[in-house]
Amino acid sequence: MPQQPVSSDDPPFGPPLGTAPSYSTRTTLSLALLTILAALFHGGLGTYDYPASWPAGVAYILLAGLLLVYGILLLIRYAEAHDAMSDPLPRTPMYATRHERMNHLIGLGLHLLAVGIAFAWALAYRAPLAHGLGILISLYAVWLVRRSQRGRVVPSA
User: Would you tell me how many other CB atoms lie within 10 Å of the CB of residue 37?
Assistant: First the structure.
């Protein structure tokens, strides 16, 4: 399937062989750790909000669980990418596929959904400062997701 380069420096088939894997950056590590922190924080807020509205509280807790899974998967990919960097024979760049883009879009969606839910609870005056902190954590994670997308090869649909 043909790929379209994001920058004019990349050849049409993606980064050259031997290029560091895309998940090997400090941005990915920061995003993984921040996502795990956000998941724990939003999960705690969900348990706090549970008595006020159990369906919304359970939904918030489930969203935090999905954020936790996303953060752990990013951490695993970071470790895999660092392991691949010690490979003596360079191969096709890791994760230069369509699922890489989808993975970041899903993470972006999960964090934006967490921002929306936290904002709704903050407007309901249910621990607005704590929910505001949750909003800031997730917005910072959204910024990291967007930052990690710069300079990537985007596979065509």
Answer: 15
End-to-end CA, the chain: 8
The residue behind tokens 């050259």 is 16
SS3 of 121-139: the string is: HHHCCCCHHHHHHHHHHHH
The closest alpha carbon to 67, from 42, 45, 39, 43, belongs to 39
Largest CA distance in the chain: 57
Is the overall model pTM greater than 0.85, yes or no? no
One pLDDT digit (tens) per residue for the chain, 157 residues: 454 444 445 445 555 555 566 677 788 889 999 999 999 999 999 999 888 888 888 999 999 999 999 999 999 988 887 777 776 765 555 555 666 678 888 989 999 999 999 999 899 878 889 999 999 999 999 998 888 776 554 444 4
Tokens of 131: 């929910």
As beta bridge partners, residue 155 has 3
Residue 24 DSSP code: G
Gyration radius from the chain CA atoms:
18
